[in-house]
Amino acid sequence: MKDGNSTWDVEVVRAQLHRLVDDVEPSPDALPKMLAAARRRKPSRRPLFAAIGAVAAAAVALVVAVAVLPGQQQPTPVSAQPNSYLAAPEPGVIASFDIYSGRQNGVLSDIPGADPEVLATDRNRVLAVATTSDGRQLVEVAADGAKHVLPVPVGDARLLTAGGGRIAYQDGDSVVVLRGEQQRIALPAGMRVDDLALSDDGRLALLAAEPGRDRASVLVLAPEATSLADHVEATSDACGPVAIAWSGHDVAALEPPACGAGQARVATFAANSGRKLGAGVPFRTPELTAGTARLSADPLGRFLVSTDGRGQWLVDGSEVRPLPPACTTSGACASGPGTFWS
């Protein structure tokens, strides 16, 4: 557990980051207010143009233009600012949503045959798995909506993660890590893997259970590992985690504080030792199981807990806020969990 000074420092930094985000993102009435103020001053073209330029520059800094792709609905600008996340509200459609309102910001890309429940992000790129004529393959989507099919068949992989320029997915009795060439990590016979997460420095975390065990543990591997022989284990209390993610240099795990309690919390572990750093604040949820929930983190240290239609929550330190579902104006809602676009 962190001492009082460390906790206070973290809260101060988090508050400062939030103020920076609020300062950067222009409010909807920013332009009218600036224009009105300009009119009240001495008539001059320079203040008016400066006001328009300031608002336009701030807006452009927070919006990513989306390219028009053949066969895709006319895209709208997709926000890449901290208060947005990605989800698939319709088959093959990857869209950005505002955290607090649930409003769809825009469509990033339309990928025919994409699995709506398999989605991963690595800074400004998005990874999906789509069924093509050559089988299930990885599709990489850039921030401008451009798509690139990677020449890597992934079979029936349902676990996909990305980070630090790497991609990892489960392939039968091994986990494959891609960065230029394939790096295979063999799994012991009968091991169950519930989730994967890649850090920015290339470390791979697995949420896995040994044969004959129901409770999963978090295993952390070095960037160049090819087996589970040398790993750091973080053992959770109670029934074990159901989803994991990296938050800076620490591993975060979504776990129930007690079996059958109808609650969850986000705990953090030191990646180098497996020591639990914090247990997190419990909050009410339906009974969550591995595969039905996704945990993701943003640069501000907040966590998005998203499920397959059974609720979403924003965890920001000791504050937990329920979020609206990812639905379009036509009423189509995401069938799979959403993820922060970090």
What can be said about this structure in brief?
This protein has helices at residues 4-24, 30-40, 45-61, and strands at residues 63-64, 78-79, 84-90, 93-98, 104-110, 114-122, 125-132, 135-141, 147-153, 160-163, 166-171, 174-179, 181-186, 192-198, 204-209, 217-221, 232-234, 243-247, 250-255, 263-270, 276-278, 283-284, 293-297, 303-307, 312-316, 319-323, 339-340. With 342 residues, the protein is mainly beta. Strands 18, 19, 20, 21 and 22 form a five-stranded antiparallel beta sheet that branches.
Task: Describe it.
- The chain has 3 helices and 27 strands.
- The radius of gyration is 21 Å and the shape is globular.
- The chain has one domain: TolB, C-terminal domain (Neuraminidase, 6 Propeller), CATH 2.120.10.30.
- The N terminus is likely disordered.
- 14% of the residues lie in helices and 42% in strands.
- The chain is mainly beta and 342 residues long.
